[in-house]
Design goal:
Shape: elongated
Number of strands: 0
Helix content: 55-70%
Distance between the termini: 47 Å
Number of domains: 3
Oligomer: single chain
């Protein structure tokens, strides 16, 4: 009887832990299929764990079939039409809301803030307080900024926009994987 060649190290080459794990997996499958008894499984498992070379592993498994039957291919992912439409509608609503948020964050704020005179007074007051403490510091003009225009909010604009783009990609994916396509 000719035995199938297994993918373990040939001859006296050392076996790895991964080789022993695969051999234990083969023994487990043989036990579950009813090819070996529980006592044989215990005995052979001990031999596999003590084995040092590929030939010792192959000897333990020599009388067992090498190949298991091929697994049946799972059918491709097909979403039912109702689920696809619901997910698409939710994605469209989310993309719309996130796009509106990104646009709102990109527009300049119309909130009225302190005037230039008020900012100058705050700067002067800060210098006087520091002078009383014995510190002569000249506060630059840009340090006390106008809170009505603090600058462009990059994160608040780009993150919602990026998520909106991802949702649009999801909508396109759902459209391409229609259930009625072959």
């Amino acid at each position: 009887m000719q035995t199938a060649v297994r993918d373990y190290p040939q001859g006296d080459l050392r076996a790895s832990d991964a080789d022993r794990d695969r051999a234990l997996g083969e023994l487990s499958e043989a036990f579950q299929a009813g090819r070996i008894t529980a006592d044989e499984f215990d005995q052979r498992s001990g031999q596999v764990l003590r084995s040092r070379t590929g030939s010792e592993l192959t000897a333990v498994l020599a009388d067992l079939p090498k190949d298991r039957p091929p697994a049946a291919r799972a059918p491709g992912l097909r979403l039912p039409d109702v689920a696809r439409i619901r997910v698409g509608a939710l994605a469209a609503a989310g993309a719309t809301a996130l796009s509106a948020l990104a646009v709102a964050n990109a527009l300049p704020s119309r909130v009225s803030g302190p005037s230039a005179a008020e900012i100058g007074l705050k700067r002067q007051l800060a210098q006087e307080i520091l002078a009383r403490e014995g510190l002569k510091v000249q506060i630059p003009r840009g340090l006390i900024a106008n809170p009505a225009n603090p600058g462009f909010d990059w994160v608040g604009t780009l993150m919602p926009a990026a998520f909106a783009v991802l949702l649009v990609v999801l909508i396109i994916f759902l459209w391409k994987t229609r259930a009625d396509r072959p």
